[in-house]
Amino acid sequence: MAQDLIELAQAVLHKAYAPYSGFHVGAAIRSASGQTYAGCNVENASYGLAICAERSALAAAVSAEGATLRILEVAVRAERPGLGAHGASPCGACRQALIELGPEALVHYLDLQLRPVSRPITELLVDSFRL
Ligand code: THU
């Protein structure tokens, strides 16, 4: 079921703008409405401005569906061009960003040994910050 989402994440990582790290990341989100949204990482000469693929996909999803967005699933894929696939789970900041609109979300990624992992966001981030 997650295969289409994984393929979307894999496809969009080729759009990454990552001239500084050389680390290309793609993320895809499936919402409760059944729609899918993709995003890649976008870096900047001012390094700290980089946006991760997961938050890029989140921005696309919210822009399309607004505040009622409910995230069901997230897929992440990463590559270093010329070197091939690389494991990548969402960073801590992205976990916090995703859980806000997807507390029941299941996250699909590759671990550092390139083994597929599917884990609830609540396992990836316990006691997330809430207001
Ligand atoms: N990156 C992501 O896109 N997602 C993550 O969860 C971790 C890191 C990006 C940010 C930066 O452009 C590059 O990977 C190297 O850190």
Structure keywords:
Cytidine Deaminase, domain 2, single chain, binds tetrahydrodeoxyuridine, 6 strands, 131 residues, globular, alpha+beta
What would you note in describing this structure?
With 131 residues, this protein is an alpha+beta fold. It has one domain (3-124): Cytidine Deaminase, domain 2. Helix content is 28%, strand content 27%. It has 4 helices and 6 strands, in the order H-E-E-H-E-E-H-E-E-H. It has helices at 3-12, 53-65, 92-101, 121-124, and strands spanning 24-31, 36-40, 71-80, 84-86, 106-110, 116-120. The longest helix is centred in the middle third of the chain and has 13 residues, at 53-65. Bound molecules: tetrahydrodeoxyuridine. Tetrahydrodeoxyuridine is lined by residues 18, 21, 23, 25, 41, 43, 50, 52-54, 88, 90-91, 94.
